[in-house]
Amino acid sequence: MDSKRLNQWLEAFRDGTLTEAEAEQLARLLREDEQALAQFREDLAFTNLLGHLTDDMISDDDFSRAFWERIQAEDSTQEFSRRFCEKRRQIPSPTEPAAEAEQWQSLARAREHEIEKRAQEALERFKAEERERAEALAYKAYLSQRRRLLVGAGALVMLFAILLLALLAPKPKPDESTVVHSSVPITPAPVATIIRSVDAQWDRQAYSVSKGTRLTASSMLLQKGFVEIAFDEGAEVILQAPCALRLNDAGSMYLTQGIISAFVPEHALGFKVETAAGVITDYGTEFGVVAHENGETETHVYKGKVELASPRTAASSGYTEMLTKGQAGAIAATGAIKRKPFNLTRFVYSLKHATRFGVPGKRLNLADIVGGGNGFGTGTLERGINPLNGMPYTNKIQTLGLKSHQGTTRYWPVPENPFVDGVFTPDNENGEIQVSTEGHTFAGFPNTCRAFYGGITNGSYHESDTGNERVPKTYLRLAGKDYGIENPSIYLCSNQGITFDLQAIRTAMPCVTILRFTALCGITESIRIYTQDEYRTDFWVLVDGRDVYMKQGVTVNSPVQSLDIELQPTDRFLTLATTDGGDRSSNDWAIFAEPVLELAAEAGP
Amino acid sequence: MSEESLTNSEVIKQVQQGSPHAFDILVRRYQARMRATVAKYIADHDDIFDIVQDGFLEAFRSIDTFDPDRDFVPWLRTICHRRMIDFLRQKRTRYQAIQMLIDKGSQHDMVTKAQQHDNSLEQLQALKHCFDQLNQRYQDLIHLRYRTNLAIKDIAIQFGQSAMSVSSLLYRVRTILARCVQSQMAQEPS
Question: What is the ipTM of this complex?
Answer without folding.
Answer: 0.85
